[in-house]
Amino acid sequence: MAVMDIGIDLGTASILVYIKGKGVVLKEPSVVAQNMDTKQIMAIGEDARLMLGRTPGNIVTIRPIRDGDISDYDTTEIMLQYFLNKAIGKKSFRKPRVAVCVPSQVSPVQKKAVEDAAYQVGAGKVAIIEEPLAAAIGAGIDISKPQGNMIVDIGGGSTDVAVISLNGVVCSQSIKIAGDRFDKDIQDYVKSKYNVIIGDRTAEDVKINIGTAYHRDEIDYMDIHGLNIVKTLPETIRISSEETQEALKDSTKQILDTICEVLEHTPPELAGDIIERGIVLTGGGAMLRGLEELIEERTHINTMTADEPMTCVAIGTGRYIEFLAKYNKDM
What we know:
Blueprint lengths: L4 E6 L3 E6 L3 E7 L2 E4 L5 E4 L1 H4 L9 E4 L2 E2 L2 E2 L2 H16 L8 E6 L5 H13 L4 E6 H8 L10 E6 L4 E7 L2 E8 L3 H16 L1 E2 L2 H11 L10 E8 L4 E8 H24 L3 H10 L1 E4 L8 H9 L3 E3 L6 H15 L5
Parallel strand pairs: 1-9, 9-10, 11-17, 17-18
Antiparallel strand pairs: 1-2, 2-3, 4-5, 4-6, 7-8, 11-12, 12-13, 14-15, 15-16
Helix pairs in contact: 2-3, 4-10, 5-6, 5-7
């Protein structure tokens, strides 16, 4: 019986599980609901996300991975166990080979903790891969060639910008500004302009439906509900896509600055490759409208979003096992 190869993307916003031959079989929020009185886990994943902002005081929703860092190892292990069981079932004749993707800024101690957690939940062999490499593989880039490729992976908690060549990262930088920060920017803007507080889910809906990083000729609108902090009453307001551009301008500028800083530290030959081949965007945050145009305007380099930006890292993580086998590297 063949050994099952599994790739796990441990994201701040979502966890994705990829199985060789089946593709991405699971995508759920990285959220756990816990009863603080009994310490009992009440829900994990999508069930826990539905509880956000709607639970009594003794039940809290926890994100064990924050801003790209693993802040709660015990809860992460429980979450990992739950998602693996859900993806492949509890019964398995042979322990699977598991590759786990981690943010590029995690320390060796954190990598070891993730590796130990994977063994604890039943992996036979474990490999750890950093997000930019996984994103590049998942986007269909041959990272083994002596060519410069720039990946901008915008996840939930962090944005990783990296130049990749010959199976490795030549130069990179990571900032804790990504999808979750976009949501908070929208919340802060609405509170400042309208004196209305909106929840995380509402802010995310605004970002997904009408959010933009660049001027659009056609303006979109969306009605949202929140609490007016002056009247202390519920209120419905209408927000435009132009307003989201204003709300997000500081965060998108910091991402642009990071891209330019990495380009400044890129060797000339590889920089030439990037000018020729372009910049590739991956991650759920890359789906924000107008990002391609904004980056092109600043860098004068063709910028494109991968075909399946949200699943690139998970797919690349799963294919990393095949990559190791191809180059005779041990897991």
